[in-house]
Amino acid sequence: MVDIKNLTVRYGLAIIGQFLIALGVALAVASDLGQGPLPGPAYALSLKGVCGLSLGMWTFLINCLLIIIQLILLRRKFKLASLMQIVASLVFGLLIDLSCWMILPWLHVHVLWQRIAVIILACAVTALGTSVEVMAKAWMLSVEMTINAICQVSGGKFNYVKVGVDLGHVALTMVLCLLFFSNPFGKGESSTLWDFFLVKGESISVAVGLGTVMMSLFVGPMMNFTDRLAKKCLSPILK
Q1: Rounded to two decimals, what is the model's pTM?
Q2: For residue range 19-29, what is the model confidence (pLDDT) as tens digits?
């Protein structure tokens, strides 16, 4: 028999986890030091204004593309229950747009140390959100499910495949920026590495930069702490 109460708690926690990850995305936008690897392509598309869609909606569409990739890879092994990713991705996209609406109008940082502080906060919030979502065991976002699918087909280890997928997202972001803005780092008049990694200009919006490196390196180690915190706080309410 399905435990409705426990199921409701798990999905509620999964949404809270997604909201925290979405806040991390919005904070990365506010820092203007670059997005994390996974939201990067969607951010580049939203900067260009392709189809007039927001960062959250591009994130949703890219996740849907990842689901199609899973179908191609797994074929008959693809489970119908995995289609819940569509709902999870839509919720996540809406939460990203909500987070941007909440944060971007008032959080304006120009000094470098302030921008670095914001991106570190983005790393911490993303780590906590990921830990909560994993602890909830309700659903996984399409990126994680795609990595699992690649592991099933190739026999590769999750951590190694994840690194490859992250690098692929960064490379795609840089290609999109190069096509859209004639430089691989983002949107702006200047195209030097220094400008896009560190210097805040009113006409510069960074998609790949110092923040991308920091998000790649810091979130995983931070989860060593946030995993323990999530387990301690959430275990009493989960069966």
Answers
A1: 0.90
A2: 999 999 999 99
